[in-house]
Design a protein that fits this description.
456 residues; six-stranded antiparallel β-sheet; 21 strands; globular
């Protein structure tokens, strides 16, 4: 391993460092990033950090190179080994160590990997902090030292903490859990077996080639096997996790996909009636029905830009009792620590079902209904996608549409809305449309996809 300046600046994204292995991220780049990270900590009078990795094939070699770089900068490391991203978050809080790096590419394709970086308490670095760190990486003005390496198995402390806030009711549940062959494969069966439920596991062997389906539960087609298994086994619910375990997906007893804004409505209805704090965060992708439900419960709905680094931080900064985003990140601050954990989100909906005499569709009765598309991904390039969004905003301004531009362009009309934004995790433009009728939704979709096509 050696220092390198041959680093593609595009891997330093909006809220993490992420690219293809080994063409964009390799051992030399990991080592160089480790030297820069350790140097940053030393210069900010910090001496310790926590490191974890998910189950990706490139994880071990990137881990070893990163660790060597950090140690040679003079920083001590607590190494968690292979863990979910939420386990890494918990370890940082539990050990009272703010800085750390989680080696993961989350739900991205199997040939990618990356680093979620935290310099201080409150969550991962994002935006300008990532770009400033890139400048430190390429400047290569590194400190020298000899840090120490120790190892920590955080699993039992984490499980005890998760289960301590869950109070199951008397209803017996049959549950199917889909690990997507991701990192939760090492942990989910052990955790959920500690509940008084009948448990069925699928895709539960760790296999970072993801042979059965891609581990992204926000994409409905990835949950086809889960749907089929729920119906076949007559289960009450199906729960799925992404590659690094920080996001959740849900299938109802009827084998239907539960969108995350619907999941959030269930949690809002559960939390707000007995909570003095009624502030709830949602991201720009979420349905108008969620906002209306929060307001029905005398809550305050606060809209955030998309992205785990933003939504997690804003949920705490805005003092919300609960928050979440359409992609499956949710943040409980009523009796949890406010970070996103797919397994904890799964526990909370099981707790709800075990204490209610209704199914998920019955628990959603009375919610205002809208017709929405799934999230639409349109291939672009990292350079062009921002130009396209600028053109969409220019078009919307010419039409005198009301514009929310905290994250791309969201147009909120009386009978529907349109969202067009840049993906922060890949070379894509993403869009979503919703209307009071299917016709309104489809008209908005056709209108804005035409604009995108014209400039993309």
């Amino acid at each position: 391993m050696k220092l390198t300046s041959n680093i593609n600046p595009h891997i330093f994204r909006e809220y993490d460092i992420r690219g293809k292995y080994p063409s964009e991220i390799n051992e030399d780049i990991a080592y160089t990033i480790g030297r820069a990270f350790g140097t940053h900590l030393i210069r900010n009078h910090q001496k310790r950090c926590i490191i974890g990795k998910d189950n990706r094939l490139s994880g071990p070699v990137l881990h070893d190179a990163l660790v060597q770089g950090i140690l040679e900068s003079g920083v001590d490391i607590i190494d968690l080994g292979t863990v979910t991203t939420p386990m890494y978050y918990f370890a940082c809080i539990d050990q009272k160590i703010e800085p750390g790096i989680m080696i993961t590419a989350s739900h991205n394709p199997k040939d990618e990997n990356g680093f979620k970086i935290a310099f201080q308490a409150g969550g991962n670095a994002y935006g300008e902090a990532i770009q400033q760190f890139y400048q430190e990486v390429i400047a290569q003005q590194f400190t020298n030292g000899r840090g120490t390496l120790s190892r920590l198995d955080i699993k039992e402390r984490y499980f005890e903490f998760l289960l301590s806030s869950i109070h199951m009711g008397s209803n017996s549940l049959k549950v199917v859990v889909d690990c997507g062959n991701g990192t939760t494969s090492y942990f989910a069966k052990d955790l959920f077996s500690r509940l008084p439920i009948t448990l069925e596991m699928i895709c539960s062997e760790s296999d970072p080639t993801f042979p059965i389906h891609h581990p992204d539960p926000s994409v409905e087609e990835n949950l086809q096997l889960l749907k089929e298994t729920v119906i076949k086994t007559n289960a009450d619910i199906g729960i799925a996790f992404d590659g690094d375990g920080d996001r959740v997906g849900v299938v109802t007893h009827e084998g239907n996909y539960l969108s995350m804004d619907q999941y959030m409505i269930l949690m809002v209805r559960s939390i707000l009636p007995t909570s003095e704090n009624k502030r709830v965060l949602y991201d720009v992708k979420c349905s108008k029905s969620l906002v209306e439900e929060i307001e029905k419960l005398q809550g305050t709905a606060l809209c955030s830009r998309t992205g785990n680094s933003y939504t997690r931080k804003n949920t705490a900064l805005w003092n919300c009792v609960f928050g979440g985003e359409y992609s499956g990140h949710v943040y409980f601050r009523d009796r949890f620590l406010g970070f996103d954990s797919g397994m904890y989100a799964g526990l909370r909906i099981l707790e709800l079902l075990s204490r209610e005499s209704k199914s998920i569709p019955e628990l959603l009765e009375g919610v205002n209904h809208y017709y929405a598309t799934a999230e639409i991904k349109i291939p672009s390039t990292d350079d062009k996608k921002f130009q396209v969004i600028a053109k969409v905003k220019e078009y919307a301004s010419q039409k005198n549409y009301p514009i929310n531009d905290i994250d791309g362009v969201r147009i909120d009309l009386e009978d529907g809305w349109a969202l067009v934004r840049c993906s922060n995790t890949g070379p894509n433009i993403t869009a979503r449309f919703e209307g009071k009728t299917e016709q309104i939704r489809d008209q908005l979709k056709e209108e804005f996809l035409t604009v995108i096509e014209q400039y993309n």
